[in-house]
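Our consortium's second objective concerns turning raw sequence data into structural hypotheses that experimental partners can test. To show how far this objective has progressed, the report includes one record in full. It was chosen at random from the queue rather than selected for favorable results. The single chain below, 82 residues long, was entered without modification.
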Amino acid sequence: MLFVVAVAISFIPILTGYCAHSRGRSFWLWFVLGWVLPLVSFFLLFALIARDELNPARRLLSEAKQILRDAEQAAARIRAEK
């Protein structure tokens, strides 16, 4: 019973941390914020994600960062194969 209560209570911090991590933010920072301020942190993260998604410049910047990350990984694989 205690385990079920612990899982239920940690749902919002885990969800907040996962959403933050999937958007390139720190899982542990948002996990802790989810424990300290559960609903506030969830809505704050939602607002930050919405700001990033609704702003075309920020979306293009995040896509460019992903392209650079992929290119660096491909270059590292090529160097490792030589």
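The partners drew two points from this record. The mean pLDDT is 87. Residues 56-81 form the longest helix (26 residues). Both points have been shared with the crystallography group to help prioritize constructs.
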